[in-house]
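User: quick one
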Amino acid sequence: MNDAVRLQLEDFSQDEEVCALRAGSMRMGGIATFLGCARDFSEGREVCEIGFDAYRPMALAELQKLRTEAIERFGLIEARIVHRLGTVRAGDNIVFIATGAEHRAPALEACRWLIDELKERVPIWKKEITPSGEAWVTPHP
Amino acid sequence: MITVLFFGPVADRVGERQIDVPFREGMCWQDVRDELTPRYPEAFALVSIAAVNGERVRDDVRTPLADGAEIVFMSRFSGG
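Assistant: Done. Structure below.
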């Protein structure tokens, strides 16, 4: 099975990630997931592709820290985070987070916390590629 | 030698992903920033985060670098 935290060029399977999340325990009563996708429209313009750049060693280390922190902070049984790099097309998957806990509340809260923290702490940058040019994305809430 | 890496929008403005800066005994990452900012003002206008050897560093803490250290000057992240 793939690592629980990954940066990869290729697409991922949500089903496989959830299966992997559940594989180690039958005590999970709640599983929450977040899927981030590439939009085809942003800031008033059509977007064809999104390119990702990353400081890969630090990005992977930060993702691993986030997973560990989330497990401790929310009492999760397991958590998985996958983020794609390279270039993705509009409509493609970008990031997947899955959290499993005994009850729904910590799973949901941890999932929201993980994507918010990821955006603040993980050195990844996205560039929108449009028919009229390219532009790095300015972070927003 | 100190290795300085750039990514994303900062790399685009520098026009390079890596440059080397000669090591001097006692130098801190802030000295490298102060040395490079006048050379790449547009790039450093975006920089709000720095890391030394993969660890985020604070502007108010000065720790001497070791020869061979890796510094990254980064803009705000936009992954996810």
